Here is the input.
Amino acid sequence: MLDASNERRPIQTSEDVVTVRQTVRQRAVELGFNLVDQTKIVTAASELARNTLQYGGGGTLRIEEVKDGARRGLRLTFEDNGPGIANLELAMKDGYTTGNGLGLGLSGAKRLSNEFHLESQPGKGTRVAIVRWR
Here is the structure.
């Protein structure tokens, strides 16, 4: 079940990546996440925002508070209209990169999340949604 408390953030510049980190941390604090869970979701958000900018040419982040019974969490959805990912299985392997990074962005974000969903098609962009429950 979704709460009405959601917002969108652009990811067009490196400054937007910083704003994403700050906004996600603030929302996690407001929801009562402990420090470990705050750090996990902020780190995942940072990696995915950087990927959105670097590989997707920019995009958006949608932040949503989610509820499941007594559980509350944050769903972060990163979307871009970039070139997409040709081989999702390969892209999820630790160490695989098409850039200058360590190749831990997608797989690392998955490990830091309670739920992870990746959709991408070559020429049609990429959408990554994660959820962290408190």
Remarks:
- The chain has a mean pLDDT of 90.
- Residues 35-54 form the longest helix (20 residues).
